Amino acid sequence: MKVGLFIPCYIDQFYPQVGIATLSLLEKLGCEVVYPQGQTCCGQPMANSGFEHLTTGCNELFVDHFQDYDYIVGPSGSCVLHIKEHLHVHGQEEAATHVRQHIYELAEFLTDVLHVTSLPAKFPHKVGVHQSCHGQRGLGLAQMSELVAAPFSKPQQLLQMVEGLELVNLKRTDECCGFGGTFCVFEEAVSVKMGKDRITDHVNNGAEYITGNDVSCLMHLEGILRRQQSPVKVLHIAEILNNSL
């Protein structure tokens, strides 16, 4: 199994430890992982702002770098969902289709492709899980609370395999953190209030750490936590699953 590692630009620039943890975790689980050196932004910021017609170069570059892998894995639900739903390249549609059908968010890949049932990881802390909107409602990583259906969460399924980790129960399990990409720029007051509400739910239920599958959401929450001088920390799920492996 040859895996192309897709590291979104904001992770590369601000949270490289998440990319390193993702690589380490996949390799320890038996994957042959390659990081295409020429990869750049997937084009999501432009598309979300109404300029998808300007993502042609991003799309072509993405296909050129990832079309030859069995799977493409990235530690960001929003970026992965963007590729799944919007990647098209004129003259290379067969290759683009292969990429769209074989790209996975990390937790999704571990549960649905590798079928991981145990992890020798240790993390003796109380952890709250932030279910990011793109991952939950776009990729189906967890059940939406408004549906009358059996609850499930692929991130929580993996975290339950970690020795010493205690998942905290939140009052509102799938509420948006308020980041929303450019939403936090154009509607910063609403965005911050939503983030504060999300943090309050975690704090009130005893979380020492907040984790999730999107560093963008965690970055938003981390900024608020720092301004509040809160002892609560944030970690991407890859960092926890790879801890003490």
From TrEMBL:
Residues 3-84, 127-221 form the Cysteine-rich domain. One of its GO terms (molecular function) is oxidoreductase activity. GO terms for cellular component: cytosol. It comes from the Bacteria. Transmembrane segments: none annotated. InterPro entries: Cys_rich_dom. It holds the Pfam family CCG. This is (Fe-S)-binding protein. It comes from Chitinophaga oryziterrae.
